[in-house]
Amino acid sequence: MMAVMHPTHPSAPRPAPGSVVLLGATGAVGQEVLRALLDLPQAVQVTTLGRRPVNTPTHARLQQRVVDVHTPASYAPWLQGQQAAICTFGVGQPSQVSRSEFLRVDKDAVLAFALACKQAGVEHFELLGSVGADAASRSHYLRTKGELRDALVALQFKRLSIFQPSMILTPANRYGLSQALTLALWPKLTFLLGGGLRKYRGIAVGTLGAAMARNLFVPSPALEILHWPEFMALSTAPR
Questions:
Q1: What is the DSSP annotation of 94-146?
Q2: Once rounded to an integer, what is the mean pLDDT over residues 106-130?
Q3: Given the DSSP bridges, would you call strands 62-66 and 45-50 parallel, antiparallel or unpaired?
Q4: Nearest-10 Cα torsion for 145, 220, 87, 9
Q5: Which of 165, 233, 232 is closest to 202 using CA atoms?
Q6: Contact 21, 81 (CB under 8 A)
Q7: Contact in structure between 216 and 124 (CB atoms under 8 Å)
Q8: What is the pTM of this model?
Q9: Sheet holding 223-226, edge to edge
Q10: In sequence order, what E strands does the chain have?
Q11: Are 153 and 223 within 8 A, CB to CB?
Q12: What is the mean pLDDT of the chain?
């Protein structure tokens, strides 16, 4: 597994979280993470935070909290006692919003959530990021994702898992012509992306969601950066 070691915590304990808080459960990836968490044989309690409830059947291990995602004080009480946090929150189609709104959602709100988690004693934080994230990138999108990643590392969680997918392949087209072309063409390019280029392969949203859920229960370094090969290994690992 490709991993980067944390500068001050060389290894992370193998967690067995009994409680997980999820921000972003109404999005495509978040819905799959939630489904996978509730399907795990481990009896993990799940709390979702969002602007609206997730449209999902009632479950004994699920609590949904409607909060102001831009105001940490509105959700801070629900972070107490949580052992792990997963954040898939972000703008679905960045090209359709202003730069300031993209920053407000994908960087500021996520970082505020992470800081609140750290202050509440959450030990393991998982983030849905992006392949190619780099604080020095000329791309505004990748630079923002890189700055967020670096800020999360600085918080020094006991365990930090950054998932960096390339193209996320959903069953249905949600954003018009550009996504329709992506969903049609990207899978056909997979065979061209071998070796070091495998991290750019498209990943089915359900596979990614399963990987993020199952990663809570596997040993790892304190800081890990995960790409396509790691997603595939996690999604098929014994539960």
A1: GGGS-HHHHIIIIIIIHHHHHHHHHHHT--EEEEE--TT--TT-SSHHHHHHH
A2: 97
A3: parallel
A4: -70
A5: 165
A6: no
A7: yes
A8: 0.87
A9: 62-66, 45-50, 19-23, 84-87, 124-128, 159-163, 223-226
A10: 19-23, 45-50, 62-66, 84-87, 124-128, 159-163, 168-169, 203-204, 223-226
A11: yes
A12: 87
DSSP symbol at 164:
-
Q: What are the pLDDT digits (tens) for 170-188?
A: 765 554 445 445 555 556 6
- Look up residue 225 and give its two tokens: 């950066």
Dihedral, 33, 35, 37, 41 alpha carbons, nearest 10: -150
Closest listed residue to residue 63, CA positions, set 21, 15, 11: 21
Q: What is the pLDDT of residue 8?
A: 38
Residue 69 Cα distances to 42, 102, 130, angstroms: 28, 14, 21
Whose tokens are 């750019």? That residue is 200
Whole-angstrom Cα distance, residue 125 to residue 52? 22
3-state SS class at 221: coil
Confidence of residue 234 (pLDDT cuts 50, 70, 90): very high
Stated as kind and residue range, the H or E segment containing 151 is helix 140-155
Name every residue whose Cβ is closer than 8 Å to that of residue 72 and which is 6 or more positions away in sequence: 112, 113, 115, 116
